[in-house]
Amino acid sequence: MSQRIKINTLLQSTQTDVDVTVKGWVRAFRQNRFIALNDGSTNNNIQIVVDFENTDPALLKRITVGAAISVFGKLIASQGKGQTVEVIAETVEILGDCDPEKYPIQPKKHSLEFLRENAHLRFRTNTFGAIFRVRNTLSFAVHQFFQERGFVYLHTPIITASDAEGAGETFHVTNFDLANTPRTETGEVDYKQDFFGRAANLTVSGQLEGELGAMALSDIYTFGPTFRAENSNTTRHLAEFWMIEPEMAFADITDNMDTAEALLKYVIAYALDKNKDDIEFLTQRLLEEEKQKPQNERSEMSLTEKLQFCLSNDFERLTYTEAIDILKESTPNKKKKFQYLVEGWGTDLQSEHERYLVEKHFKKPVILTDYPKEIKSFYMRQNDDGKTVAAMDILFPGIGEIVGGSQREERLEKLENRMDEIGIPKDELWWYLDTRRYGGCPHSGFGLGFERLVLFVTGMGNIRDVIPFPRFPKNAEF
Ligand code: 4AD
Ligand code: MG
């Protein structure tokens, strides 16, 4: 038997009248004759033509939607419409039966909610096949972008004893018997007896360790899972999400913005090129979905146009203060249409404000800088005005914040003062402060939320649909 060929290769084949072996899962079986077969290598199916008159009826009965089969036959130029080549089956072997009465994935449109409940099988649909191929391409492109620029991929720990964002939203890591935790004399949990001899948690960000690497390797990046116990049941939040965090020595906030903008454009262009069929499929999917909406709520651009637009326009850069002025004067603010009215300087921006700036006002991606220090993390570099820090957030249409970053406070005294002011324990972060003691230098970095990027590139509306097995409050199935 000839070696198995993947369907994407077969469909591009110019050589016909050759024997091939193809394996995959049945997507449809029409007229006891035409099998639409998919193996996940592409969104497109190969058509298998079965000579049903000369095939055992018992075998034909087992060619059902979802069954895994192996086909040996001849690749020929297709007679029918819709495909250039097809396979005339000589033998069909059932590798795995699939009971059509019970199989949840039927050849019809399923709701995304239903597919979330069947996340173990949803890879077998066109939509999720496309999403996870695009996700794969994007992660490869992230590595390629940094590798081309001489960044070192640094694996920062998943288990830590610190809270990099200082927000107290960590998951504990312990091997105590929770019904019976050892106590100190004063009645507190005695973490000295725990596995790590101290309280530990899952990381919320690899940044602090990333900074240590950058203080010797110059440019590093992390790309790994991060965990947040924030009780946000939204279409933009996960309890477990992947983050890309570059950290660059001798880089200021402008270098930081330039790198982030270049990264986003690079990976989007890469996916547009590598996943043409998938993105075209997702573009059509979104058009169909938007037909359900009233005209004024539909997007002006298709998914592909939106991605192209993002590549060919500079992101708008402005300060938080300028953004607040725009928001204060905006129609939804004046007409009290915002859920949270923008009254003055200093408040955190809500996602409705971010989306107004991006989708209505500038109509393109926006980078906001120089936020009030009160609403940002302790490590951000303090500006000379005493009020703001050298932060930068990138806001994307339909997404809101996709990147959060800053120039870091490299001046020991200023950093320590800020930690004291907001109650970040200096003794626990002695190692972080050491980099400011021993050859510290100006440096910057940012975090790109990987799932928010995948959301943008696939045009999906819910972050739970762009990670294989989403973790969120009250859900850890699969
Ligand atoms: O803005 P954040 O919290 O920044 C940091 O963690 C910094 N330490 C990054 C750095 O400077 N190295 O998170 C960065 C990005 C956000 O912009 C968002 O895209 C994503 O991570 N993000 C989430 N994505 C999904 N679910 C959540 N719960 C997220 N929280 C943040
Ligand atoms: Mg942020």
Automatic annotation (TrEMBL):
It catalyses: tRNA(Asn) + L-asparagine + ATP = L-asparaginyl-tRNA(Asn) + AMP + diphosphate + H(+). The keyword Protein biosynthesis applies. SUPFAM superfamilies: Class II aaRS and biotin synthetases, Nucleic acid-binding proteins. Homodimer. This is Asparagine--tRNA ligase. CDD domains: AsxRS_core (cd00776), EcAsnRS_like_N (cd04318). Its EC number is 6.1.1.22. It comes from Mucilaginibacter antarcticus. Belongs to the class-II aminoacyl-tRNA synthetase family. Keywords: Aminoacyl-tRNA synthetase, ATP-binding, Cytoplasm, Ligase, Nucleotide-binding, Protein biosynthesis. It is found in: Cytoplasm. One of its GO terms (molecular function) is asparagine-tRNA ligase activity. It holds the Pfam family tRNA-synt_2. Residues 132-468 form the Aminoacyl-transfer RNA synthetases class-II family profile domain. The lineage of its organism: Bacteria, Pseudomonadati, Bacteroidota, Sphingobacteriia, Sphingobacteriales. It comes from the Bacteria.
